[in-house]
Design goal:
By secondary structure, the chain is mostly helical. It contains 13 helices and no strands. It is globular. The model has no long low-confidence stretch (mean pLDDT 85).
Length: 416
């Protein structure tokens, strides 16, 4: 519980800084500028899990569950980094070309620099999660968020904030977080270096990669559900509609604040406990889930009641069209809390196939509904499609999880 409280506090501050930064960017650049930045970031967020091959999660598993020493895992990370970087930047280039963004060379170069640093940080956080020190990941996110907020606020105050200068600030913030990660990783290196060798039982690089992909594929599938609507909306209706929708997603996404922290803490805990403790942890997860769902239900009601005042008060009347999209998004966001918490346990056990099956169907449905509804309803159509796919996917996943939990087959499957 203490880990959850501390991580929650750090995460709340970091996300508060990110939220404030988004408000400043929206007020300074308007819907069009906000939408353009969101298109760059959405493409990255979509591709990041699959391009990085799930190395962070595989690292946490290798260090936490299998007890592998630092040097072995670090060498595997060095092997995969150039592969991840090439895959990410190459696929991003294709999407930016499709969206008509690739011609803005300076912005693309700055964005690519930020994203390259994000891979380094992501890899290192796998060590922190594996040794049960997930707080280091949140400290890193907080540092980057605070530096980014300070730079954006300064640029806006000087009337120098634009899409290129925004990404220039992101480069500085990312370099600072990379430096911080390299500093704290040394303490973990010293802790893990005392472990013995692997003998003949260690995973090869390719087995490590397959383990990582078992995490990356479901994360990519989830990313399709989270981000494909922004890309389709940008392609069909342009940056202004994306600007409205991005604000709606930001406000409705406040529902996920505590569940995201809880999911990360649970993942770290599951990968580092013994098999004897797993049954009691499952019961604890379900108990906490009831509390989380009640608390998030109250937050959803509050957001729904105050959405109009929140948007117009923070972002201005220019973003009024985002309010209707928030109303559509909230039910789906609330339903996804169930998935986020329950999936953190199964993912830590390596049981990711259930999420892949269910949310592949949900993602396909999401794409179809976006293509049908966005041309007529713009950002409202994107929000409607998201609400339908999120709700159906989350409810189906929860029903399947509870069925397996009652049958006692979850821990059994993990051991196999």
């Amino acid at each position: 519980m203490r880990t959850f409280v501390v991580a929650s506090g750090t995460s709340f501050i970091a996300l508060g800084a990110i939220f404030a930064e988004g408000v400043i960017v929206a007020k300074a650049l308007g819907p069009e500028g906000r939408g353009e930045i969101s298109m760059y970031v959405a493409a990255f967020t979509l591709l990041f899990p699959i391009a990085t091959i799930g190395v962070k999660q595989a690292t946490a598993y290798a260090v936490g569950k299998l007890g592998y020493p630092y040097r072995y895992v670090r060498d595997v990370q060095h092997f995969y980094y150039p592969i991840s970087l090439a895959a990410l930047l190459g696929s991003l280039g294709l999407i930016y070309w499709w969206l008509g963004l690739l011609s803005k060379g300076a912005v693309v170069a700055l964005a690519f620099t930020v994203f390259a640093g994000r891979i380094l940080v992501d890899y290192a956080c796998g060590f922190a999660i594996g040794v049960g020190r997930v707080q280091l990941q949140y400290n890193t996110e907080l540092l980057r968020a605070l530096i980014s907020l300070a730079l954006v606020a300064g640029l806006a105050a000087a009337s120098e904030l634009s899409v290129p200068t925004y990404f220039g600030g992101q480069v500085v913030a990312q370099l600072a977080s990379v430096a911080y990660v390299l500093w704290w990783r040394r303490t973990i290196r010293e802790e893990l270096s005392v472990r013995g060798g692997l003998g003949g039982t260690g995973m090869t690089r390719w087995e490590f990669g397959r383990r990582g992909l078992s995490y990356a594929v479901p994360l990519f599938v989830m990313g399709l559900n989270y981000m494909v609507d922004i890309l389709i909306l940008g392609k069909l209706n342009g940056e202004v509609a994306v600007g409205f929708y991005a604000v709606a997603v930001t406000v409705a996404g406040l529902t996920w604040l505590a569940p995201n922290v809880l999911a990360s803490v649970l993942f770290s805990k599951v990968v580092s406990i013994s098999a004897d403790e797993e049954a009691s942890l499952q019961a604890e997860i379900l108990r906490r889930l009831r509390v989380v769902m009640l608390a998030m239900g109250l937050i959803v009601l509050a957001l729904g009641a105050g959405a109009e005042y929140l948007v117009e008060g923070l972002y201005g009347k220019a973003f009024g069209p985002a309010v209707g999209a928030i109303y559509w998004l909230l039910p789906g966001m609330y339903a996804m809390v169930l998935f986020k918490v329950l999936n953190s346990e199964l993912s830590a056990r390596g049981l990711t196939h259930l999420a892949v099956y269910i949310f592949s169907v949900a993602a396909a449905l999401n794409v179809v509904l976006n293509l049908l509804w966005i041309p007529s309803y713009s950002q409202y159509g994107a929000a409607m499609a998201t609400a339908v796919s999120y709700t159906l996917g989350a409810i189906t996943y929860t029903v399947m999880y509870l069925r397996r939990w009652r049958q006692g087959t979850i821990a059994e499957s993990a051991r196999r």
